[in-house]
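Quick question, first post here. What does this chain look like in 3D?
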Amino acid sequence: MVRFGQPMSTARGVALLRAIEMQRPAAERLSTDPYARAFVNPLTLHSTALMVRSGLLDRILPRGTVDFAIVRERYVHDLMVGEIRNGIGQLVILGAGFDTRAYRIPELGSIPVFEVDHPATQSAKRHALERVAPTLPAGHRFVAVDFNTQSLGERLAAAGYDETKRTLFVWQGVIMYLTQAGIDATLSFIAGHSAPGSSLVFDYFTTGALTGNRSAFLQFMTRAMGERVTFGIPEGEIAPFLEARGFSGIRNLDAPGLRALYHHTLRNRPLMSGAAIVSAKVADRTG
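> Answer (accepted):
Ran it through. Tokens below.
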């Protein structure tokens, strides 16, 4: 993605794609985020939008990368609203980046929302939001965590996280940049420190998607934004992977599954193969 004037990061890159999606007619949008433009430079937005509309970006990146990122936004949004209506007591967004759902989902009401991320990212986010969403929703908490030196559990507890409340954990666009040990530590915390019926949603790459010429350019792009894609899950192995770590009720959606779910809006928009979204419940520890 072309960039002008601002350091690009994966968080800013995803906000850029949401801002580009907002340029589509409302009936054609997969995702709606009126705040996305606050995080991107106008010249970057214009130039990258041209690359998307011309199809150039899909000829550089693995085909369907852009539209997978956007349908991911839609799926997680819909799941969040469904879990809120089903009575969750709190929401934890891990690696929140420039996610703005906490400011634009009215169903959240006063449900506590914990946005977890590095303090530098949170500072940039709060500065940008001051121009467009100056009032934080009731119950909202920024939880600044430096994962190199601080404990997720300790930081959440200090912010008021309640292990007895049924919780939804959103972990979007994160695990592909982590180590196996880091992923296991977070999954262990969720499985061991949340109420029965709590749930988790995250997206991931298969190991097969991390090889080949186009994956090399994906690696190059993410490294240019300060990240490195390091982790994938073998195709067909997501259920045993999560079951071994204390989860059940697993629902996995790859490109065909997402297309079936959103076929009316997706129409002819391609979706990346080798990427998927999974949701799961914390298994009953008393059984």
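The chain has one domain: 62-282.
Residues 8 and 225 are 5 Å apart (CA to CA).
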